[in-house]
Amino acid sequence: xxxxxxxxxxxxxxxxxxxxxxxxxxxxxxxxxxxxxxxxxxxxxxxxxxxxxxxxxxxxxxxxxxxxxxxxxxxxxxxxxxxxxxxxxxxxxxxxxxxxxxxxxxxxxxxxxxxxxxxxxxxxxxxxxxxxxxxxxxxxxxxxxxxxxxxxxxxxxxxxxxxxxxxxxxxxxxxxxxxxxxxxxxxxxxxxxxxxxxxxxxxx
Length: 204
Description:
The chain has 204 residues and is an alpha/beta fold. The protein has 6 helices and 9 strands. A hairpin with a 2-residue loop joins strand 8 and strand 9 (195-202). The chain is globular and about 45 Å long. The two termini are 25 Å apart. The mean pLDDT is 94.
């Protein structure tokens, strides 16, 4: 099992504060050259759609929703029962004005997030690896409020080879262990190109 903290906790980088990103430009992952994000976004959207239909889920919450790319890939009927939260102002504007999905501006680490209806699925794609304490986030927020979680993060990063703004890296076993320790039952876990997609049900 491999899990790596990619920063020195005694000297954390400035970008580890989520609000450091608030004024960044919006990043259109669906238009990224080479389509490097398209496969995992499509796979997560399909997974969320299947969960909603199989388990009669009432509400979808996308944490770290970016410019609304994931929400835009959901069937039109499901978008009416979905909301994203994102702290980059330009991404929030793009999601609402261009993609036509609901994304609200919020810092998911500090703001009071309305996690949704009684039966809820939370998506957090390519987001946990940016947090200073992903374990605390999964355990304290998601396990307390979500029936289901669909998460994705890179599966092949190491302390020697990783994106400059990633704070953590996991292989499959390390990623699953984080969710299991928080009180989730991991029911599906697979690779989609460079990303790993995990589906977990709350045991609480």
